[in-house]
Amino acid sequence: MAVIALVGALDTKGAEYAFLADRVAALGATPLLIDVGVLGVPALTPGIGRDLIAELGGGSLTELRDRGDRNAAMTVMARGAASSLADLVASGDVDGVLAVGGSNAAYVMAEICARLPFGFPKVLVSTIAAGDTRSYVRETDLTLMYPVVDINGLNRLSRPVLANAAQACVGMATSRYAEPAGGPPLVGVSMFGVTTACGSSVVRGMEDRGFEALTFHCTGVGGRTLEALIRGGTIQGVADLTTTELADDLVGGVCSAGPDRLTAAAEAGVPQVVSVGALDMVNFYDTVPPEFSGRLLHPHNPAVTLMRTTAAECAELGRRIAARLNPSIAPVAVLFPRRGLSQLSTPGGVFYDPAADDALYQALRDGLRPGIDLHDFDTDINDPAVPATAVDLLATWLEKETP
C-alpha cells in the first residue's frame, strides 16, 4: 500500500488536510500527516509532529514561538520537513508527497523537493502556481496545480481541485515508471532557439556515438538544472555550446542562471566542450528597462525582446568564461565561430557586430590557460562544422573513460 506524505500546517489548514487524508485513504493509499505549523493548535493528529520537525530543522518549537519571527520559523520547519522526507524516501517508507497552501507551503515544498530524487511523485497545490514559480520549482520535477480560489477552507471549487491533487499523487505513487538500470553515459547539451541547429546536431552526433544526450533550454532554469545534474553526478560529459545565460547574469537580463553557471563541470572533473552560443544577446520580457533604451533591440516574439551585447560586455564575458574554465581538471576545449554567435549575428543579421565578437574572442584567447584549446571556425555557430567538432572531441574523451 502506497504511503503519501501530506505536509502542511495542521493548525491553519486542518480542514483541507483532513479532506486530503480521506481522499488518499479512499484511493487505497495510506496518508502520513506531517505537521509544519508553529503557533496554533493542530486540528488533526499528525503522524510526525511539529516538535520533531523543528528539532530536525535545528531549532525548537518553543524558541520559534517565543521569537515570533515568521521567516525564521518557516526556515527551520522547511529544513526539518526536508530532512524528514529525505530519510523517509531513502528508507522506502514514503511513496509520494503532497502539500497545499500559499507561499509558505510552497517554500516548504521547495526545500523538500530539493532533497528528493528525480521521478519521485511531488505535488503542490498553491496559489503561487499562477505566478513566477522559479524560486519554488528550482531544478526539480515538482508538479504544480493552481487551486483557482485561495486555500482557505472547503467549498465547491476547492474540493474538486484537492481531490484531483490526491488522485494525481496516489496515481503517480502506485503506477511509477521504472527506468531500466544502466544505459549509456549521459551528456548535457545547452541550446537556445537561435542555436537550435547546433544543439540538435550535437544530440544526434552523440547518440550516433553511443551516448544519451539531454538538452537544456538556456532560460536560466535550464542552466541551473544542468549545473545541478553535473554536480550530482548524473551527467558524464557536457557540450555547453550555448552559454547565453552568462550575458543575462552580467547585464541583468531575465535568463540569468546565477553566478555559478559554467562552474560545475570544472569542479567535478567532467569533460566539456564549451562555446559562445547566443552571447550576442541579453533577454528581456516585453518591457526593456529604461536604462537600455538607446541599445540595439530586437523583438524575438511578442513576449521577449533581445538586446545586442556590446564590445565591452563581450570582453568581460570572455574573461569570465576563461576564469571558470581554467580550474578544470578534466579535458576541456572552447569552440569559437567567428562569423556569428547565433542565428541573429551572422553577416547581414540584425545583431551582426564583428567588433563585439572579436572583443569576446580576444578576451578568451588571452584569458585561457595553456592546455585549453581554442578552436576557430570561419563559420557561424549553427554551421555543421561546429557541432561535428564538439561531438568528435567530447565523444573521444568519453570513450577513453568508458570501460
Question: How would you characterize this protein structure?
Answer:
The chain is α/β, with parallel strands linked by helices. The chain has helices spanning 14-26, 50-56, 61-67, 70-90, 103-113, 134-137, 158-174, 196-208, 221-231, 245-251, 264-268, 311-325, 354-367, 385-401; strands at residues 3-8, 30-35, 96-101, 122-126, 143-145, 186-191, 212-217, 237-240, 272-275, 281-285, 297-301, 304-308, 332-337, 373-377. Helices cover 40% and strands 18% of the residues. Helix 13 links the parallel strand 13 and strand 14. The longest helix is centred in the N-terminal third of the chain and has 21 residues, at 70-90. It is elongated and about 70 Å long. It starts with a strand and ends with a helix. The mean pLDDT is 95.
